[in-house]
């Protein structure tokens, strides 16, 4: 629970007051009310206790003011820490957005105009896929440099020559499971690890486990979207074929 006045947790509030030797402010208020009630009691006792009562009330009021000052300072410090943390999270999210935006999730197997590019962005594999499975598949075409980040479910594969890279892309395009040339190619590595492949110059894949996990979540979402996108042309094709068939049946009724 949080103190509604200062916006700080109750346990932190009470601990701070205790360390300062000040009773809980609600207890102070209760004591003040009790003192006020006693001050109204019998006329005979009022004169006797008036001076002492005034001193006690003043002492309690001083403690109350001190408590308020301590809690206000504590609230300001906690608020400052929260703001710093929130700003750090905001900056981290912006940085992550920039990283993800640079990854070629929308790439294809069509060779890029820039002939210096001879690398591929590979994504969507299970974190359990061993790196050697990807290496073995790619090295059939020639020497490679492979950077795999399992938590991100991403990798970059760079071939030694552009010609070899084009052969690799053509192999996936013609013998893989790709159904839509406008999406990254689809191939199954080692018979059990489906991955997407697209041309792309190597980009950063995050620097921390948190970054890698966030990118991994994006990859899972993109893989689902691509699967749906690959399926849509087939659906449209069936619709077109159905329309053509219906039109053919009716075409003999009239000639112009």
TrEMBL record:
Alphabetically ordered keywords of this record: mRNA processing, mRNA splicing, Nucleus, RNA-binding, Spliceosome
Bias type Basic residues, positions: 235-247
Family named by the database record: Belongs to the SLT11 family.
Major localization listed first in the record, in broad terms: nucleus
Region described as Disordered: spans on this chain: 229-256
Entry's Gene Ontology cellular component terms: Prp19 complex; U2-type catalytic step 1 spliceosome; U2-type catalytic step 2 spliceosome
InterPro entries: Cwc2/Slt11 (IPR039171), Nucleotide-bd_a/b_plait_sf (IPR012677), RBD_domain_sf (IPR035979), Slt11_RRM (IPR034356)
SUPFAM superfamilies: RNA-binding domain, RBD
Membrane spanning stretches: none
Official protein name in the record: CIC11C00000005600
Top-level taxon: Eukaryota
Record flagged with keyword Calcium: no
GO MF entries: pre-mRNA binding; U6 snRNA binding
Subcellular location: Nucleus
């Amino acid at each position: 629970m949080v103190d509604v006045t200062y916006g700080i947790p109750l346990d932190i509030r009470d601990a701070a007051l205790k360390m300062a030797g000040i009773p809980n402010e609600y207890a102070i208020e209760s004591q003040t009310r009790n003192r006020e009630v006693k001050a109204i009691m019998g006329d005979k006792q009022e004169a006797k206790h008036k001076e002492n009562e005034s001193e006690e009330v003043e002492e309690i009021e001083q403690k109350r003011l001190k408590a308020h000052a301590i809690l206000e300072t504590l609230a300001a410090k906690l608020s400052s820490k929260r703001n710093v943390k929130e700003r750090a999270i905001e900056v981290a999210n912006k940085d992550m957005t920039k990283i993800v935006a640079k990854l070629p999730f929308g790439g294809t197997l069509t060779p890029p105009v820039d002939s210096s590019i001879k690398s591929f962005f590979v994504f969507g594999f299970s974190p359990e896929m061993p790196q050697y499975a990807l290496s073995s598949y790619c090295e059939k075409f020639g020497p490679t440099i492979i950077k795999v980040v399992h938590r991100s479910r991403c990798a970059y594969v760079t071939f030694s020559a552009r010609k070899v890279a084009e052969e690799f892309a053509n192999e996936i395009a013609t013998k893989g499971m790709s159904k839509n040339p406008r999406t990254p190619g689809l191939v199954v590595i080692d018979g059990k690890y489906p991955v997407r492949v697209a041309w792309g110059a190597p980009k950063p894949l995050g620097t921390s486990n948190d970054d890698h996990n966030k990118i991994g979540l994006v990859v899972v979402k993109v893989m689902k979207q691509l699967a749906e996108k690959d399926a849509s042309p087939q659906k449209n094709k069936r619709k077109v074929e159905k329309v053509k068939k219906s039109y053919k049946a009716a075409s003999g009724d009239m000639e112009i």
